[in-house]
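Pilot study result, target chain (322 residues):
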Amino acid sequence: MKAIRVHETGGPEVLHSEEIPTPDPGAGEVRVRIEAAGLNFIDVYQREGRYPMDLPMTPGVEAAGVVDAVGPGVEGLAEGDRVAYAMQVGAYAEQAVVPAAQLVRVPDDVDLRVAAAVMVQGLTAHYLTHSTVRLEPGMTALVHAASGGVGHLLVQVAKRLGARVLATTSTDEKERLARKAGADEVIRYRDVDFKDEVDRLTDGAGLDVVYDSVGKDTFDRGLDCLRPRGWMVLYGASSGAVPPMDPQVLQWKGSLYLTRPTLGHYIANPDELAWRTSDVFGWIRAGELEVRIDRTWPLSEVADAHRYLEAGKTVGKVLLFP
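Predicted structure:
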């Protein structure tokens, strides 16, 4: 089968299309014929070596497709079933072997491309708003990169829970998308200081939570936006890693909470995975969650897809097709 392989860390040029043996599922595993794989910043971090991985490797942690073979001891799944998964490395390929416990069934009325688009970003929006910080009516949240893959979904889910949402974007098109998603206020961060705008929009009271996927460029200023005992939820680093900090800063700025969550710890058991996917697929089926697929690339052009993602051009999800 064809797969993308990384033999050394570096830029997009280290992504190579190769022929490798088709894997066979072992006990408790299923082989999936991949219809679509999602592109995520975690793929970039692994490719760069920021998240160390054993090499050579096949990147990609999210895909949807059809069960192609079932290993010993697997119950409840059969050849031909439509499935999706997240947080299992190896999705940049025509086929992948996945632990059966990490697979979820995709409803017949949900397109497999849409399923691939939400397994990381949709479940991330769910856990950030339902578990990391449980949003409630009366709370005010700031969502950075609000028209990106996670941000666009995060705004919608936060509004479902009754929060007031302030969103940062950079262009007219991205502002339009953030407002369509439900953002109450949009801050054009290239034109104004977002902290000053937060002060103005909250009458100086500050925010309950900042959802920050940007990292280095926004983190320090984001802490200054929080009310006492507010939450800084740092879940990405598209601008670079946040430098080490003195924990005393959290005391000085108002006994703040800081967390650096990751999806794998929020879908660590089948019940939690089922809860989150059931909610997300249910919202999609009811027409209550818009999933925007921004661009698609054939798997052979994955390097260009990585460059596009890293350039900050995305206004939704980027997908790869084997």
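One observation from the pilot: The first helix runs from residue 41 to 48. A full batch analysis is planned for the follow-on phase.
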